[in-house]
């Protein structure tokens, strides 16, 4: 089993992120708070509770270089948290949104961060040194619905988004004074801020979990129709592959390398995808070793549902007499909503990552001895 550690932190976890040295984890227990835990003497201890938000925290990212935490919430605000001594000091970032903020991610250089929202827009935020505050520039009039995920290209300028309008888009986030125009052959700095580079109309359903490969050559995202889409050469001549799944849809995606992807979602079990020498992507297997057959799973779920209904419908029967729900047999017991890489230094190949979900667990997966997993 590739699951190296399973930690039950809460009843439900919305999102999570790790400190640069992976000694601390920050997560939202499905409320307006962010809890920071550290592993001390064989157990996890709560060190901090960040409680500036008024509604559910929907996104967290912890900068590897800056050690700053950025959070966004349904209250339409964002905070950048800076550690000063033992305390975390918040700085409010006004996003200019009239709907909830849904996701957030630091740029590779950590001089900007992107926020997806329910206002059909994306906010690109950067720090203005002269005035000592964070500025938010909004990309408007492009999305037809809520922005569910954002992903930065390695060049620190291109930003990919997915939306509940079923489309994946790529924008330029070039900001004068923040980004520099390089002398390289790349045309990434030739685009103006907010200019749409590509629009991918591959999914007829909601789209989630967009990610770039380590080199930025390949883009991948998931559709709520149990499809995964892989696109090469997005900027010049996009070439797509559509991979249909037999199981439930994915919610998030992570590139382990240029040719290996992990997908997580409603099936509660990480899925491994790999590309062959010709670049053809295919599903390999589930990462967690358990996987009951469809008929057995449906039968057990039906029996459990009938048992609960029968037990709870009797007025004189205590709820304690109803047999509790049996575990699914895997690391996660409910939908996995978040996957975070645990990189060492400048490694381009991800060998460890963590997942969190609606079951309140954070699971650390170690593939150090499983990198031949596609064979």
From TrEMBL:
GO cellular component, one term: Arp2/3 protein complex
Superkingdom of origin organism: Eukaryota
Coiled coil feature spans: none
Record localization: Cytoplasm, Cytoskeleton
Similarity field: Belongs to the WD repeat ARPC1 family.
Self-association state and partner proteins as the record states: Component of the Arp2/3 complex composed of ARP2, ARP3, ARPC1/p41-ARC, ARPC2/p34-ARC, ARPC3/p21-ARC, ARPC4/p20-ARC and ARPC5/p16-ARC.
Protein name: Actin-related protein 2/3 complex subunit
């Amino acid at each position: 089993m590739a699951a190296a550690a399973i930690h039950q932190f809460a009843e439900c976890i919305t999102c999570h992120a790790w400190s640069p040295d992976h000694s601390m984890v920050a997560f939202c227990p499905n409320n307006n708070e962010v809890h920071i835990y550290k592993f001390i003497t064989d157990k996890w201890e709560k060190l901090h509770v960040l409680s500036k938000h008024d509604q559910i925290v929907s996104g967290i990212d912890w900068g590897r270089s800056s050690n700053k935490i950025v959070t966004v919430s349904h209250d339409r605000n964002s905070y950048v948290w800076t550690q000063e001594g033992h305390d975390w000091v918040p700085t409010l970032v006004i996003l200019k949104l009239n709907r909830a903020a849904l996701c957030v991610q630091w740029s590779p250089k950590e001089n900007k961060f992107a926020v997806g929202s329910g206002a059909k827009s994306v906010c690109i935020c950067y720090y203005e040194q002269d005035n000592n505050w964070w500025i938010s520039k909004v990309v408007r009039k492009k999305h037809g619905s809520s922005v569910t995920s954002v992903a930065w290209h390695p060049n620190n300028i291109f930003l990919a988004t997915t939306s509940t309008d079923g489309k994946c888009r790529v924008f330029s986030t070039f900001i004068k004074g923040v980004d520099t125009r390089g002398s390289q052959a790349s045309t990434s700095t030739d685009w103006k801020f907010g200019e749409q580079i590509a629009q991918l109309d591959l999914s007829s359903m909601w789209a989630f979990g967009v990610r770039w490969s380590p080199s930025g050559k390949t883009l991948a995202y998931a559709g709520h129709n149990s499809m995964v889409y892989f696109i090469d050469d997005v900027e010049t001549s996009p070439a797509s592959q559509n991979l249909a799944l037999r199981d439930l849809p994915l919610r998030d995606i992570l590139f382990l390398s240029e040719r290996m992807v992990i997908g997580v979602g409603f099936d509660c079990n990480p899925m491994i995808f790999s590309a062959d020498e010709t670049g053809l992507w295919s599903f390999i297997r589930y990462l967690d070793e358990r996987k009951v057959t469809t008929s057995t799973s449906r039968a057990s779920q039906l029996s459990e549902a009938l048992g609960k209904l029968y037990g709870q419908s009797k007025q004189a029967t205590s709820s304690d007499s109803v047999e509790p729900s049996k575990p699914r047999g895997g690391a996660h017991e409910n939908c996995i909503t978040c996957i975070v890489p645990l990189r060492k230094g400048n490694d381009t190949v991800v060998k460890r990552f963590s997942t969190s979900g609606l079951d309140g667990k954070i699971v650390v997966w170690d593939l150090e001895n499983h990198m031949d997993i596609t064979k």
